[in-house]
Amino acid sequence: MVINTNIGAARSQRLLAESTQNLNGALARLASGSKIVEPQDDAAGLAVATKFNAQITRNNAVQNNLTSGLSYSQTQDGFLQKVSKALDRMSELMTLAKDATKSTNDKTNYNTEFTNLKSYISDIGTKDFNSVSLFAGANVAITKDSDGNTWNLEKSDLNDTDLISVIASGFVVTGTLSVMTTAVESVATHRAKVGANIQRLQLTNEQVGILNENLSASVSRIKDVDVATESTQFARYNILVQSGTAMLAQANLLPQNALRLLS
User: Can you give the residue range of the structural domain that contains 178?
Assistant: First the structure.
């Protein structure tokens, strides 16, 4: 029996400190909802989760770019629908003008509407979307993944050779109908290209969304705390702290037994 050194109290103090640390850790995990409160909790898991979170953030930006590209293509298609409608009417006017029973005045009236429709189509060819030309036939690159890879939308050019003859100043309602037919087919081709763009943009957007779901699930498995398991651990550590505190008090009383030998 010794007085200066109390091994039981020292051991009880060490175990109490360990239980207290575990209790505080369980409390922090339950309060934060995360298994990784400090880097040392899971250094490798934290590195993976950080990388995935960064990729999720980039994917959100990709989806924003895809949405902008989708709006761009849908705007193109909206204008092309009007161009197609205008060409249909111009074809109708040209057909009406072929009628031998129509007077010169009638044909003049047809040509007035025909000329206005030409100007309307020509004006649409100069439209832009957020300062980006809709129908200049230039490449428009769209971001498709979190690595910054891009692909170009199918070009649409209302000023190509198939339409120049329709919107040229010299083309009148009494012109050649076959030229108008070619222009109608050209616009239909443009709409098909824009439709392909829209389809790919929508599919790519869905793909990125699914990828983000899977990445979020992976991050959740790494970081999110299992409340049922952690609450059980919290109860266990809480009991250990209480019992450790009681035993430390008892261990501190042991040296007092030496006084009985001196009395």
Answer: 43-222
